[in-house]
Amino acid sequence: MNTKFDLRAIGNAFAIHGDFSAAVPHGSGHINDTFAATYNQAGRAVRYIHQRVNHNIFKSVPALMENIVRVTEYQREKLIETGEPAASRRALSLVPTRDGKWFHRDADGNFWRTYLFIEGASTHDVIETEGQAEKAAQGFGAFQKLVAALPGERLHETIPDFHNTPARFSQLELAIGKDAAHRVAKAKAEIDFCMECKPWVGRFIELNRRGVLPERVTHNDTKLNNVMLDDKTHEPVCVIDLDTVMPGLALYDFGDMVRTATNSAPEDERDLTKTFVRMNIFRALVRGYLSTARDFLEPAEINQLAFAGQLITFEIGIRFLADYLNGDVYFKVHREGHNLDRCRTQFQLAREMQRRMEEMEDIVRGAISNAETVILTA
Ligand code: ADP
Ligand code: GN1
Ligand code: MG
Q1: DSSP 8-state code for residue 243
Q2: CB of 47 sitting under 6 A from ligand 1
Q3: 128 contacts 260 by C-beta, under 8 angstroms
Q4: Atom 19 in ligand 2: which residue has the minimum CA distance?
Q5: Could you tell me which residues come within 8 angstroms of residue 360 by beta carbon, excluding any fewer than 6 positions away?
Q6: Centroid of ligand 2 to alpha carbon of 220 (angstroms)
Q7: Residue burial 243-256, b: 16+ Cβ < 10 Å; e: rest
Q8: Does domain 130-377 have CATH number 3.90.1200.10?
Q9: Probe ligand 1: pick from 240, 242, 267, 330, max atoms within 8 Å of CB?
Q10: Closest C-alpha residue for ligand 1 atom 6
Q11: Does the C-beta of 219 come closer than 6 Å to ligand 2?
Q12: Which of 56, 176, 204, 239 is exposed most, by the fewest CB atoms within 10 A?
């Protein structure tokens, strides 16, 4: 096993029956270290997810875990109430440690958690069909609808200002000023593009400040590989990666689906001629999302659905760019210039969405029958 962690010992801290057989790195997330571990349970192989939570990024893992316990317990309760026979496949299920906690701290201070492995379902880095896009958006919409009613106190903000685009812009300006990795000169064209976009980066935060866009409980990381789709039916099975579930704006969630699903190529594609916005996929996303979110979204939110894709694509682009300039300290990178490549695809997409905004707005208008909807000029 090619890992610096002793997964057998880590697994032993959790209340898992059977004998540890093997653990292998799993998935393509940029933040946590995720392993699929197999245990022999009286002759049957059963898999679990062991995951190291990135505590450089998440400053309070106990607070983050408190959020996840509240959200997953609520999901489970609601699923059971509605007669769902496979609740442990439809919501993440945490496995406690042998001493009854939700995470284990190893000797090096790392935080580990364990989930039941959701079998017969997969995540997709690039969506292939309109059907997959529609189902994935339906899944995220249903998740938002469910957690909107989460009882109790406001959830912890696991990363403050996570989707505050102007704050992200300031972080970028700081990175340009510092030039810690001496890369500013290599990213001149991208930096120039950012400065052109500065006038519109604050639109959602401003609309929220004016009381036009409501705060809700949102997922905040709705990239397409954070929803598992059934391998056979393609139905949404489970929304995963709940580290950033916290107060936020529904539009950023929809926008991130648009960013990741409409992209014709992987997020880090180097050949930009392969990166474009697939309008048929956008149409499918709008249809899928509205099928579950239509009855709670306010007209002001619906009015901004098309722009949401452009704004978050730009926001993630500036985060990749800032990380490139800071010397790759946040996102996992697997090659030289990886964050700059990711930034370039994002800016290519954002530009294209800007160019095709009317078409995208027409698609949203076509999908709703609500005559009083008027596109805001924010
Ligand atoms: P990251 O924050 O690093 O993106 P994720 O929680 O999204 O971490 O997990 C990384 C990948 O691991 C996911 O994209 C998914 O493919 C897989 N994964 C995560 N949890 C489960 C689970 N409970 N069952 C099966 N696969 C999972
Ligand atoms: C990270 O964890 P993962 O890989 O699902 C990031 C998101 C970015 C995304 C870009 C906590 O998501 O915000 O949009 O990479 N998560 C965090 O691919 O920063
Ligand atoms: Mg993820």
Answers
A1: G
A2: no
A3: no
A4: 31
A5: 279, 282, 306, 309, 353
A6: 9
A7: bbbbebbbbbbbbb
A8: yes
A9: 240
A10: 241
A11: no
A12: 56
Structure tokens at 266: 């992987």
Token readout for 232 is 């056979």
Name the strand (E) or helix (H) holding 50.
strand 44-53
Each residue of 213-222: pLDDT tens digit?
Answer: 999 999 999 9
| Tens of pLDDT, residues 96-152 | 999 999 999 999 999 999 999 999 999 998 999 999 999 999 999 999 999 988 999
334: burial class by Cβ within 10 Å (0-12, 13-18, 19+)?
exposed
What is the atom index within ligand 2 of the atom nearest the CA of 243?
11
Mean pLDDT of the chain: 95
- 317: Cβ below 6 Å to ligand 2? no
The pTM of the whole model exceeds 0.70: yes
Q: Is the CB of 29 under 6 A from ligand 2?
A: yes
Domain ranges of the chain: 7-119, 130-377
Residues near 65 by Cβ (< 8 Å), separated by ≥ 6?
53, 102, 103, 111, 113
